[in-house]
Fold:
Amino acid sequence: MSTNKNFFKEQKEQSQVKATIIAKYFDVWSKVIIRTQKKYPQYPQKIAYIDLFAGPGRYEDGSVSTPLKILTNAVNDPDLCDRLVSIFNDGDPDNSKALESTISEIEDISKLKHNPVIWNQIVGEEIANRFEKINLIPTFFFVDPWGYKGLSLRLVNSVIKDWGCDSIFFFNYNRISMGLTNPKVKSHMSALFGNERSDILRERIKDKSPLEKELLIIEELCSALKEYGAEYVLPFRFKDARGTRTSHHLIFVCKDFKGYELMKEIMAKESSNHEDGVPSFEYDPADLLPKQTLLFKLSRPLHDLKTNLMISFKGQNLSMKDIYMQHNVDTPYIAKNYKQVLWELYDNKEISVNRSPKKPNTFADDIIVKFP
Structure:
């Protein structure tokens, strides 16, 4: 617990990036959900933000953490003031009390129709069981444990099972990597990967290089989440201050392509490196490019995309939007990468189109591409 308390002494760059990603996504996610709700007034006009490891709200240096970012933005948005239901939990009673006090000091916090709820509970099967038994309103669910206790496939799926519910969680790679080979925490690893998968993974990572080991662990986690009910999974890697080792990941989980697309654009902008305009999906304080990909061919150069599209869609006629939606999942590519590549293929006369793009390096969503 003392280590956990020390975490809140000073906000590091990695924590700032993490909070920025979460706050930006909550902002765009909430707008999408609220627009949809307004079309169907017969349904509950509420959305929720749940943070199960919320901390005290501020770092000792005065920097605000994620809960305060979310609430401070909410009080300035009339729609959120009327709709937002927020639940903040921390197993440390000192953190819970500090958070409650800090929230009460937010200017205009009384504008919120629903007062923020503060829990002081240890995260485990009880909370997952509670969420499983109810139909949740659209919820953005953040799980940021110090280590791995309380984090499970069941917990994540207990929230994303319902419409409009997305989740993002902190994956402490170093702790979990060590935990896989520690028989004392086998039950925690099983909760995170599944019994059979964790046993297989334990064998597969033996004698692997650090990078190979990381690749296997992250891919198995993403596969487990998908098998458990998630449609889309997107990891974002953080490296240590020297840029030599991975410290942790943020793992985004959702069941709708729109959410995946929105988060992918946000994570792309927060990436510290880009190669040929392709985001690395990592934050490296030392600004070092990775020597090898992390997950699903991340950080491949843009020219590889050209070759892949020509092979994948050989002989087909599709719109730019269809090409993008069919191809981009589990790759590092974002919409502008496809537009640039399709323009270059068109300019080199390697593909034909039903109408010409208006400007160089642009490509309208509805332009039909004919692949040879």
